[in-house]
Amino acid sequence: MTKVLVTGSSGFIGQHLMRELGAKGYDAAGVSTQQSADSIYECDIAQFEQIDAVVDNFRPDVVIHTAGIAAVTAADVLRYYSVNVIGTENLLEALRRTGAQTRLLFLSTAGVYGNRDAEFLSEALAPQPVSHYGFSKFSCERLVENYIDEVVYTTIRPFNIIGPGQNPSFLVPKLVSTFARGERTIKLGNLDVLRDFMDVRVSAEKIVSLIERESSFGEQVNLCTGVATSLYSLIKDLEDIAGYEIEIEQAVGLVRRSEVWRLVGCPLKLRALLDDRSEPTPVRDILLEMMTLYRH
User: Fold this and answer.
1) Does the annotation mark 133 as catalytic?
2) What pLDDT, in 10s, does the model give residues 56-69?
3) Which pairing describes strands 40-42 and 27-32: parallel, antiparallel, or unpaired?
4) What fold is seen in the domain 3-163+199-226+263-280?
5) Where do the domains of the chain lie?
6) What's the CATH code, domain 171-192+228-260+285-295?
7) Catalytic residue among 80, 113, 133, 147
8) Could you give the CA distance from residue 267 to residue 120 in angstroms, rounded to a whole number?
9) What share of residues in the chain are helix, strand, coil (percent, to 5)?
10) Can you give the pTM of this predicted structure?
11) Using N-to-C axis directions, what is the helix angle for 132-146 and 86-98, rounded to 10°?
């Protein structure tokens, strides 16, 4: 049985990956800063000795590396680099010490693209990140490529992954929880942004499906739908679901200086690699499910 180690296994995407791997018959173990189950190793990837001990003990055939600081606006800038970059370097060094060539799926971010004059962002574009989060993830991509003799990698660039269980500090769950509580006003920053939203369960299924796709080895792959959704349309859907209109207060303090205005991916490469002709889950359906869960 193929042994798969998921870093960041207690995170939003990590939890769904663990379920998907179990459903597909993989021997899955997780790495988290807190041990929440027998299959989870308590480990801080920023500490080499800890991740080295986990890798040496579990000896994974495959690693799905999701661990890291994901918020674009984290206050402690150094943590982007100490956790995302140094943590990735520690993982790669631990894998190198096994003497085996490990299959690695690294979750980067669509944020590496930055602001571009393009309707759809494709993997052919050279990265131009504009935030510390984007810079740190692009640094990780380069690190992974430098370990080509130690890992058989695929770099996955997720766009906006949403769904049940997402941290309420992120935009979509913040909006959903506001409507679920029946609040009549909300403070928001940029209102004219466009994003590409994908259901977290679909995302996990596609990531796991890439494990054994040899055509994805050594590639960068967008994890996206190619559907542009505006913040205005999100709010309209939530107003329809909740049955009332909300008053929006535009807060200058919430407007990010390095805001990416249009972040919509080209999904053609992902579809070709997976021979996938399925339609993306409608954003409204995801919002409705999230609203139902918040209300209960």
Assistant:
1) yes
2) 999 999 999 999 98
3) parallel
4) Rossmann fold (3.40.50)
5) 3-163+199-226+263-280, 171-192+228-260+285-295
6) 3.90.25.10
7) 133
8) 9
9) 40, 20, 40
10) 0.94
11) 20
